[in-house]
Amino acid sequence: MKKHNFYAGPSILSQYAIDKTIDGIRDFAGTGLSVLEISHRSKEFQAVMDEAQALFKELLDIPEGYEVLFLGGGASTQFCMVPYNLLKTKAAYVDSGTWASKAIKEAKLFGEVEVVASSKEDNYIYYPKNFTVPADADYLHITTNNTIYGTELREDLDVNVPLVADMSSDIFSRPVDVSKYALIYGGAQKNLAPAGVTFIIIKKDILGKVDRAIPTMLNYQTHIDKGSMFNTPPVLPIFTALQTLRWLKDLGGVKEMQRINEEKGACLYDAIDSSRMFVGTTKEDSRSLMNVCFVMKPEYKELEKDFLEFATSKGIVGIKGHRSVGGFRASLYNALPLESVKVLVEAMKEFENNH
Ligand SMILES: *Cc1c(COP(=O)(O)O)cnc(C)c1O
């Protein structure tokens, strides 16, 4: 049976990226070797790195003065690398969910942290807006998509200090005005590649302003100077990331991706809104197009397990909600086709008619 993959991360990749990865594992760029067993300093792998960086710049229209890095450590290592490299005395953070609060915890190790807005008291059901950022903050940190709670900020903020964004789960889902950001980072395992590589888009002139000594591996400058090859980079995930970027370019780029994502989101949110049984968990103006969280209304609550089983019988995989929200979470990442969303919506309607 065809599977419909709604996992939140690691998550669905395009069939193109998977097929090309398999090809590269068998015979990489006509070398007669697998991409798994070749030097990262070979000219063939250097070409992969170069093209992946170039496609990042092209697809996101990244201006001059920025560098694209591919490192290990996951987005979680960025929670400490950002303040290590950028926090002199004080940083501002928006607390919009679990990942944001983890970033805040790390930043506090390096200086004063001012949480300028938080939706924690309301269990993160909306994206906090309308806040002011102190002019003396070294940067403002935001998390554009809250993978666990299903809220998203789908606009690029204008702020008076350098803007840093965790875009782990919505990178390449829409056009982004990169010029408004000093740094964008994310784990690749939501919208780009298998787990193991972290992307960083960094404006070079924001560095060199803190006095502390920074360990070599945690210093952005190290990786800028060495083109992400200071140590062995995550070769295979970078190889797959390149395939995803080629797929995305071929499909029409981020503008077309946004159009498709809006169509997918509307399809599922309309079904939730018109349902007698299901209800969304987030405020309408904050709804994520990447992670759609919903539960069963109180009078049907005991049917949640049954629906999960019913969905599984239809080939629907990965919609069990995160333990901090419960119910269901359907992740509609870039590679998920509209067809899969329609299968989920049909399953919801059929289940509702049966009960
Ligand atoms: C998944 C996720 C993370 C954690 O990423 P790791 O690569 O596992 O460290 C951080 N932020 C957001 C928004 C995420 O979705």
Annotate the secondary structure layout.
Blueprint: E1 4-5, H1 15-26, H2 43-59, E2 66-71, H3 74-86, E3 90-95, H4 98-107, E4 112-118, E5 140-143, E6 145-146, E7 151-152, E8 163-166, E9 183-187, E10 198-203, H5 220-225, H6 235-251, H7 253-273, E11 278-280, E12 291-296, H8 304-313, E13 316-317, E14 328-331, H9 338-354
Parallel strand pairs: 1-13, 3-4, 3-5, 5-8, 8-9
Antiparallel strand pairs: 2-10, 6-7, 9-10, 11-12, 12-14
Helix pairs in contact: 1-6, 2-6, 3-4, 6-7, 7-9
The protein binds pyridoxal-5'-phosphate.
The site of pyridoxal-5'-phosphate has 12 residues, from helix 3.
What average pLDDT do the residues reach? 97
Strand order of the largest sheet: 2-10-9-8-5-3-4
The number of helical segments is 9
Number of separate structural domains: 2
Description:
By secondary structure, the chain is of the alpha/beta class. The protein folds into 2 domains: 4-11 and 253-354, Aspartate Aminotransferase, domain 1 (Alpha-Beta Complex); 16-251, Type I PLP-dependent aspartate aminotransferase-like (Major domain) (Aspartate Aminotransferase, domain 2, 3-Layer(aba) Sandwich), CATH 3.40.640.10. Helices cover 35% and strands 17% of the residues. The chain has 9 helices and 14 strands. The chain has a 7-stranded mixed beta sheet with strand order 2-10-9-8-5-3-4, with helices on both faces. A 3-stranded antiparallel beta sheet has the order 11-12-14, covered by helices on one side. Helix 2 crosses helix 6 and helix 3 runs parallel beside helix 4. The radius of gyration is 21 Å and the shape is globular. The two termini are 25 Å apart. Pyridoxal-5'-phosphate binds at residues 9, 74-76, 99, 143, 147, 166, 168-169, 187, 190. The site of pyridoxal-5'-phosphate (PLP) has 12 residues, from helix 3.
